[in-house]
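Late entry, written up from scratch paper. The run itself happened at the end of the previous shift, but nothing got recorded in the book at the time, so transcribing now.
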Amino acid sequence: MRAHLLTLGATALTILLLSGVAQAGENVVEVEMLDYGYHPAELEVTVGTTVRWVSAERRTSHDVYFPDEDMGSPRLFPDESWERTFDETGTFEYFCQPHENRDMRGVIHVIEAE
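Output as recorded:
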């Protein structure tokens, strides 16, 4: 019975690894949205990096809006997140539309990988 459970566990782990659910080496960087700010507000990443914005607020919601591209996230409520993968170099400025008057802004600098 014990050997059967070990085999079943190893099979489940193999399936997770092959499906990418537990993939190692994923290039994801998190930006926390808290106290009407992005933390960090300025970030440098390499091409291919995924940035994940996570709302750490208790009650309010935020979004991530890129005005130069007229695109962004939906409103993110506590514990929700949104991701964007940066596939080209450049400087990408963004802000929170509902809290633009509070100067809730950020910038992502995307550079070539060395």
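The chain has one domain: 26-111.
(Scratch paper discarded after transcription.)
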